[in-house]
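Structure in, sequence out. Go:
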């Protein structure tokens, strides 16, 4: 049985576990091992996630399948003071993919966005990430591209995708 629950600071180790299990497979063919390690530390250290949750207004949802962590999503309402839900992260453990967990997480974030009077949901995704096909299947369209300097000589080369709620 699938349960989606809001995450709190005490669940940071669960989020970190899922990230460390998914990132090498998700990005192993697109990013160097050095960039993956750098980004995991930058985005998923305990301090980074604590700051996201307590200062940046990021909300996390963890998906549990039969009481075991299966994936998570992170989002922010009223992104840049606009009626937009920014989907910052959505990942499902490789062993749990293909079981509609990603869709359940996406549906939950969209539902929260609608209830919160948001008009769109927006996300960034690496331009070479196979997840683009998933986003298109659930109604997203590409609205732009951006290259973000994240330090240490690394860039995030992203497509910007959006969907009306």
């Amino acid at each position: 049985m699938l349960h989606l629950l809001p995450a709190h600071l005490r669940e940071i180790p669960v989020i970190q576990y899922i990230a460390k299990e998914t990132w090498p497979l998700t990005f192993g063919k697109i990013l160097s091992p050095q960039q993956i390690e750098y980004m995991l530390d930058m985005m998923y250290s305990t301090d980074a996630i604590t700051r996201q949750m307590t200062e940046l207004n990021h909300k996390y949802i963890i998906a549990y399948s039969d009481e075991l962590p299966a994936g998570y999503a992170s989002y922010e309402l009223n992104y840049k003071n606009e009626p937009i839900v920014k989907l910052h992260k959505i990942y499902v453990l490789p062993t749990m993919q293909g079981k509609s967990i990603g869709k359940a997480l996406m549906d939950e974030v969209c539902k929260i966005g609608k209830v919160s009077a948001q008009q769109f949901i927006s996300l960034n995704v690496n331009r070479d990430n196979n997840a683009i096909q998933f986003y298109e299947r659930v109604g997203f369209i590409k609205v732009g591209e951006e290259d973000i300097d994240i330090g240490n000589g690394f860039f995030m080369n992203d497509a910007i995708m959006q969907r009306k709620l």
